[in-house]
Amino acid sequence: MTERVFVTIRGLQTGSEDKPIEAKFQGRYGLINGKHCISYEERPADSGLVTKNIIKASGDQVIIIKKNGVESRLVFDQNRITSTDYHTPYGSISLSIRTKSISIKDSQDLIEINLEYSLLYDNSQLSDNSVNIKITPAK
Length: 139
Known about the structure:
The protein is mostly beta strands and 139 residues long. The chain has one domain: Calycin beta-barrel core domain (Lipocalin, Beta Barrel), CATH 2.40.128. 0% of the residues lie in helices and 73% in strands. It contains no helices and ten strands. Strands 6-5-4-3-2-1-10-9-8-7 form a ten-stranded antiparallel β-sheet, with no helix packed on it. It starts with a strand and ends with a strand.
C-alpha cells in the first residue's frame, strides 16, 4: 500500500430510515508495529474547523481519534465494552461502545475495515451501527 491514500467511510444506523452517510478524503497510510495507521482531515461545512482524524486498526481492535473541534477517542474492541467522552463545540456526552464484530481485510491495493457496534448512553442502547472504511492508493 502506498503512503498517499484515499479514505472512503460509509456509515449506517441499523433500522434508521436515513440513507447511509458516505464521505471520501485524501489521507496518509503507514504500517506501524503491525497496525494499520491512517490519518486524514475533514472540514465540516458548518464549523470551519479542520478535524484531524487517525484510525489505528489491528486484529480485534480499531481506534478512531478525532482532534480539533470534535474531540474523541473511540475504541472498538470485541472483548469488552469501552467508554468515551465525545466532545463537540456544543458540549460533551459520555458514551459506551459495545462492539459486535470487527473485520479487517488487507490486500496490496485495498484495506477494508468493517465495524458493527451499538452505542450506549447511561446503559441504554441508543443505536445499532455499521461502518465500512476503505483505504485505496491515491494515483
